Amino acid sequence: MTHQETDDSASFNLSCPLPKEPLSLIEAGIFLGNFEGAQNEELLRSNGIRKVLGLLENFSEYKGFDGIEYKQVLIVDNVRADLVGILPECFEFISRAQRMGENFLVHCVAGISRSPSVLIAYFMVKYSVDYYTARDYVNKGRPGIYPNKGFIAQLRQLDVNEYKVYFN
Asked: What is the pLDDT at residue 7?
């Protein structure tokens, strides 16, 4: 993994169009996407996705499909939202999918802020890398991610060693 560090991390992707694909493969078995992708049974099944981690402010319009396990985490996409507070439950779900060798999807509404932020944190811990390196890695798989400034601040302060317990 390599990275490009900038002074204003939030604006690093301003010239890149927002992702239009409902799902993007980030790494073998790890998909990042939007609400549309999470609600498309054919797309989930054709990509072998067996687990779905949803990061939304409500799940009232959410539907699930037989044979796919879901984890729903409530979080709003604003600068004051506590991203770090949800990481343990997200990491437990992701790590279990990885141990079982199952493909999984992490999604939010647009697949540009909440879900990429969780995967950035995941890769920071998994590979013991800094925010910029993990951000660029996720952005390579899904160009156009745009974590909000509050999430960026939390991720830049993240102590990856504190979360290594979820990767054993």
From this structure: 39
Question: Looking at the predicted structure, is the pLDDT value of residue 6 above 50?
Answer: no
Query: Could you tell me which of 104, 154, 106, 98 has the C-alpha nearest to residue 126?
Result: 98
pTM of the shown model: 0.91
Active-site residue among 52, 94, 108, 120?
108
Residues 1, 134: Cα–Cα separation, whole Å: 8
- Structural domains of the chain sorted by starting position, each given as residue range(s) with its CATH number in brackets: 29-167 (3.90.190.10)
Give residue 60's pLDDT: 86
Closest CA to 147 of 163, 123, 128, 126: 123
State the helix-helix crossing angle for 83-99 and 114-127, rounded to 10 degrees. 60
Mean pLDDT of the chain: 91
Residue appearing with tokens 């540009």:
112
- The question of whether 108 is a catalytic residue gets the answer yes
